[in-house]
Amino acid sequence: MKDLINNIVNEFRASIDINQAFLKTSFEESNLIEFKKSLHTKGESIDKDYLKTISGYANNKGGVILFGIDPDSKELVGIKDVYENLDNRYISTTIRDGLDGNFEFTFFTQTYLGKIIGFLVVKEASVKPIIMKVDSSSFKVGDIYFRYPAQTAKILAADLRKIINEEIAKRLQGLLGNIDNLVKLGDSAAILNTSSGEIQTGDKLPKLILDEKILNKLNLIKEGTLSEVEGAPAYIIKGEIELGNVEIVKTVPSIITEHDILEQFFDRHCEAPDVVLEMLVFQNSPYLPFYFFAQSANLSKEEAIDFLNSIDKPDMNKLTRNKLVNRLNKFEYKKQGKILEGITESCDCDIDLNVQVSSVKDTYKEKCSHGQVERTIFFNTLLNKFELKDEYISAYPKNIIEAFSSLLSETLSEDPEY
């Protein structure tokens, strides 16, 4: 993804014509590029109408949406300043709620002579098709979109048939490969059921069971493929499986997303903290967890600052790196964000959070923002020691951390398992 981003930025910069009366790009809309004059958000998510283009890219070869460019004149008009370095959770919330399937994406911004341009890069999905799971004025649940030259449209029967045939072929190829390996290994072959831990060794050897504690910690994949679980450390079983002698090779993930960082932080377990620390400077948000990974890497405050300053790569986000260093230099535990007095509601698992926040905001007498109400509801949930849904932790880490900072030390010390 880093190389792809670097290529897109370099090619776009080279396409800008500064000799005109206004900034203009020589890029044309295509099956890989789409222009949007502005960027629209609702609450803490982007407009779900963008899902058509996003899913269309994922179902084809991927692509990029360029926000802040007039599709008619190709002029760089820019997006609002408030969207500069917009947190990727705005995009991930919309995609998670609106699309069925998994694929990689990232959002970042670049500034050209005062014009802020947003880049939403979408990679081709490894498993297709990506399907709509929400309704909108322009699409319905179950719709499948595909990116065609300069437009996104409902997929044609021929293209859908091609996708399905390719998926069948991939699975058949994988199955045939496994069968071929079993034939080559002969009596030495054993099959591991990754759900139960049972190792089938045939009639000649006793049945083996892999300890559940070990099984839960392993993400077993066949050699030559990637793990389908984002951010999960991969373990590869090579060669023959012998009693008491299984060779396992641990690999460090090379692509780490914002979701992976948060997942490892909340799980309080990280296999490669130094890799995560380096990847933090490539994120758009400087407010992702940092101290946990620095501690896991056995770095002091000064060593962590030196480590960040030593990273000097052309595609990193220097603004994020500088703000992380600033966080370390000025670190002081204190309250972050305002908690609104008079609001006593906690998270209601039976109601959509945005609906609950809007309802509370409408009844609150004083002027307040959506984020302040959201933070206060999280604070009340933590104060009452109610459990937070995993999806909230992934989607709203900043407000949850800010809410946590407002808890009194006495409250935390009351319960050692808090």
From TrEMBL:
Gene3D superfamilies referenced in this protein's UniProt entry, alphabetically: Schlafen, AAA domain
Stored InterPro entries: Schlafen_AlbA_2_dom, Schlafen_AlbA_2_dom_sf
Occurrences of domain Schlafen AlbA-2 (ranges): 29-153
Domain of life assignment: Bacteria
Name of the molecule in the record: Schlafen AlbA-2 domain-containing protein
Organism: Rufibacter tibetensis
